[in-house]
Please model this.
Amino acid sequence: MLITGKGGVGRSVVTAALAKIAAKRGRRVLVTEIGDESDDYSPLARHFARARLPKQPEPMEPNIEGAVLLARTGQEMFLKSVLRSGTIARAALSSDALRRLLSAGPSFREMGVFFQLLTYLREKRGAGSAYETILVDMPATGHALSLTGLPELLLRLVPKGPIADSLREGQGYLNDPKLAAAWVVTLPETLPVSECLELIEGLTKTKMPVGGVLVNRVPADPFTEAERAALLPLIEQNAWLGAEQFQKPLLSRREIARLRANTALPIFTTPELPHEGLVDELVRVLDVAKPMPLPVGGA
Ligand SMILES: Nc1ncnc2c1ncn2[C@@H]1O[C@H](COP(=O)(O)OP(=O)(O)O)[C@@H](O)[C@H]1O
Ligand SMILES: [Mg+2]
Model:
């Protein structure tokens, strides 16, 4: 399950909440995010009381393991599988020239991340598999699409050989709607909704199945229709403090309606919540009678 969306919409909190829900339902979960070697802090890891996710999967909570997807880890795993030797792979990767090449080409970075993810997907599909649900906290829009679009792009350049084989294998997992889905997190505001619709289109173009949209931070409307009607002329005539807050629920309803008008995908909403205990509260809100369908084997 790939959790995608524009920066700051709540991908990481939602990923953490979904991991906790799946774990509560008894599934063995691997929670991952795409990181960078230089990251010393991860907002996702914080929801599991850690500063960072470990480089190799480690238990974080009952039923939940976590690992960061790093270009270099994946490149090493790939070289190891091709060269059939970890020692030679590590020696190759310690060559400055090769490292420069691998970090300069954007596709090499993505290939690394892709291969690491593929390794976990394989483990998941294998007999006595370690994981039943794998969640990926994806980077913001553009980077997410370069990852989901990687197989098509590279297969055109390199149609044969070990890289092509892993790309095809990865496509087999990621592009099968029975096995995988991307979910788009957004906010009920104009630009985020527009970007969400573009992202759905982009994901579809890269053949990534989209499970649905989660509209996060939907504001509660404290007013009745009659109260709104009475307040509206006053608000319009005066630059009241709070005029924007007054309009927010209306804007939110309008944007959710626009989303519904432009996509047939399932749409879920989650409210604006207090900062304190946010993830636990999201778990409560999302794990209700009509839960978000966790892909691969259902609830
Ligand atoms: N439903 C919500 N109610 C209130 N605050 C939220 C909600 N969802 C997310 N936030 C806040 O929004 C900010 C961004 O969330 P985060 O998950 O880090 O976004 P992203 O991973 O998409 O960049 C965080 O400060 C988080 O606490
Ligand atoms: Mg994040």
Summary: The radius of gyration is 21 Å. The chain has one domain: 2-221+266-286. Residues 106-125 form the longest helix (20 residues).
